[in-house]
Amino acid sequence: MASKSKVASFKEVLSKEEIDIEELRRLCFYGCTDKEGIRATCWKILLGYLPVKRKYWEEELRRQRSSYHRLMNDVIINPYKEEDQTEAVDHPLNPNPDSQWHKYFEDNDILLQIDHDTRRLYPEISFFQLPTMYPRKAFNTGVVLGIEALKERVSHSSLPSQKVESSRYGVRKVKIKKNEEEPFSPLKEGEEGHWEVVERILFIYAKMNKGIGYVQGMNEIIGPIYYIFAQHPDSLWKEHAEADTFFCFSNLMVEIGDNFTKKLDRSRAGIGGSMNRLMTLLKDRDTEIHKNLIDKEIDPAFFGFRWITLLLSQEFLLPDVIRLWDSLFSDSERFDFLIYVCTAMIICIRTDILAADFSVTIKLLQNYPIDDMQRILQKAQDIKQFYSLSKR
Amino acid sequence: MARATDKKYDHLFQLLLCGDSSVGKTCLISRFADNEFRHTHINTIGIDFKLKLFTIRDKKIRMQIWDTAGQERYETLTAQYYRKAQGIILVYDITREETFRNVTKWLRNIEDHGVKGVKIILIGNKVDLESERKISTRHGQKLANQHNIKFFETSAWKDINVTEAFTELAEQILAKVESGGGRDRGSSSIRESAIKLHEQQPTPATKSHGGCCSGGSSN
């Protein structure tokens, strides 16, 4: 399909007063385009953030974006203020779990972990290190409101016992000295890197979803979504990339959150169930390779755990991940197609696996050698077709 | 695939690294196995794997090194690999107190899930960040002594003591295997029996590296 007509067909579907979701899914399945912000719009619809009726878009976006602003305020600016009157008796060493100080330190532990992980988000591209055009200055510098910037909270959160007695805000300037080979060029005062936006979204998500909290790997899920939204050609949509990402990510986590939950590991809904489905499907489609893996005692957890939990985002380069996610998100039975793709990935390297011993097999599966996304998707589609035909 | 050459080793050892997230487990392995260091690498999700061929006392050792995710969520997954390991490297970050406090928790995990008599060493990583140090060498050494395990302070970045630490662990496992006290994993759970290149021969008792950090500066 020529690029122009691709844009045209997307525009046609997206311009309808009530968008035909099935039609949109069919189009997206074969890959969206970034032209005119089409991919961002499609993902927002597919992830249930934008309603199918266009006339509600404006109102819905306004409502959600302002509610994100309130969340930012509640979670970052004002979380410890409600019991201000207790501050006279509260102190950093207060062992009471309801102590505002206690909560503050607990939050900082979460923040520290998120900070570590978002700093190393997609190191192969520069995007996340670059400054956003829309820094949340109030949240970033904190000066005006007398609150600490998230990043500054983190930079000294590992030494609260030594430093914090003085004042909660007085230690703001304590900064960790960075290595001279620090790979990230420092941003100017008031600037904010895209990774810091991602950090803030994850922190708010963790605070709002305490049952699941922050789990390593969520950063990899949120990365591509924010990457698409933050490069929207329309400046208003671009400006609200943060809020939009938060809600799309939250919606997505409703569907895949079970994979991030330890207590569901062995259940059908959790990652254990998904890995079983992968192996069952593989056995059905390619008995020989399945038997080979079993004989070599290759546990699906060695590769399948990461593949499925992260929607394959660590296995391919970002542009390929994005293309793959077009198909994954347009799956009406999310995330069946993901399992098909994983199966296809194994079958695509079957010859290598059959010739390999235990170690080499694991290396192949953990450092997946094929970068031809089209080939993998084609194979996955064949598998999908096989099952949809056999269902009839 | 390099299948034929793969098998030219005397012993197959399985090692596992554990410890809190972001203490530098992956970096230590990359330094040891590939002699490289990257400031930015992605999180380890689940369990990762590296191979290293390595010689001690004329014995060719093929090391399978398992890298685990440090976050609590991944514990149930990673714990099941403890029992496959003959040697475990437990890592903390000398600049972050809580990672040191958690060493006890990790030791308990090893006790619960590891095989009896598994060889363990303790590593305090990131000595290149001396100005941010929170845990003194003495403290680390004391904890190691309490548990009767060897202790090293390392820097994966500056390549300090990394090989020494892995070597020490390999030495301990080798001694155990040679004294008949440990099964050689090559022929058990994993289908990669080691092909004996050398017939059983008396091994010279030369120690290739002393290496253990005995309380002084690690530089």
UniProtKB/TrEMBL annotation, chain A:
Pfam families: RabGAP-TBC (PF00566). SUPFAM superfamilies: Ypt/Rab-GAP domain of gyp1p (SSF47923). Residues 33-332 form the Rab-GAP TBC domain. InterPro entries: Rab-GAP-TBC_dom (IPR000195), Rab-GAP_TBC_sf (IPR035969). It is found in: Cytoplasm; Membrane. Its main location: cytoplasm. GO terms for cellular component: cytoplasm; membrane. One of its GO terms (molecular function) is GTPase activator activity. Keywords: Cytoplasm, GTPase activation, Membrane. One of its GO terms (biological process) is intracellular protein transport. The keyword Membrane applies. Acts as a GTPase-activating protein for RAB35. Together with RAB35 may be involved in regulation of insulin-induced glucose transporter SLC2A4/GLUT4 translocation to the plasma membrane in adipocytes. Interacts with RAB1A and RAB10; in a GTP-dependent manner. This is TBC1 domain family member 13. It comes from Amphimedon queenslandica.
Automatic annotation (TrEMBL), chain B:
The keyword Nucleotidyltransferase does not apply. Keywords: GTP-binding, Lipoprotein, Nucleotide-binding, Prenylation. The keyword Transport does not apply. One of its GO terms (molecular function) is GTP binding. Pfam families: Ras. SUPFAM superfamilies: P-loop containing nucleoside triphosphate hydrolases. This is Ras-related protein Rab-1. Belongs to the small GTPase superfamily. Rab family. It comes from the Eukaryota. Residues 178-219 are annotated as: Disordered. Coiled coil: none annotated. InterPro entries: P-loop_NTPase, Small_GTP-bd, Small_GTPase, Small_GTPase_Rab. Protein transport. Probably involved in vesicular traffic from ER to Golgi. Transmembrane segments: none annotated.
